[in-house]
Amino acid sequence: MYATIAAVQGHMFPEGSAIPSAKTFRATPFLAETIVHPTYDKEIRVFVVEGAEELQRRENQKFLTYG
């Protein structure tokens, strides 16, 4: 799941652009730590997790191998 999320974040915030990349600002580790925090909204957690799983399903498990 986190590999899918990292890939999406990498597309949204790529290296070499005018803004910091997802890798530079550690977007995936931040999200991973945040969504398991007890105060984090459980519905948003489900949305993030299920969204990553749905993306992989829709792309026949090939999303991570594109490009």
Summarize the structure in words:
- The chain has helices at residues 2-12, 27-35, 42-58.
- The chain is mostly helical.
- The protein has one domain (2-15, 26-65).
- The radius of gyration is 13 Å and the shape is flat.
- 6% of the residues are buried.
- The mean pLDDT is 93.
What's a concise summary of this model?
By secondary structure, the protein is mainly α. The protein has 3 helices and no strands.
Topology:
Layout: H1 2-12, H2 27-35, H3 42-58
String of helices and strands: HHH
Overall 3D form: flat
Overall strand count: 0
Distance between the termini: 19 Å
Radius of gyration: 13 Å
Q: Structural class of the secondary elements? A: mainly alpha
**Beta strand %:** under 5%
Question: How many alpha or pi helices?
Answer: 3
User: Average pLDDT, to the nearest integer?
Assistant: 93
Question: Helix proportion of residues, in percent?
Answer: 55-70%
Structural domain count: 1
Low-confidence stretches: none
The description of the largest β-sheet is:
none
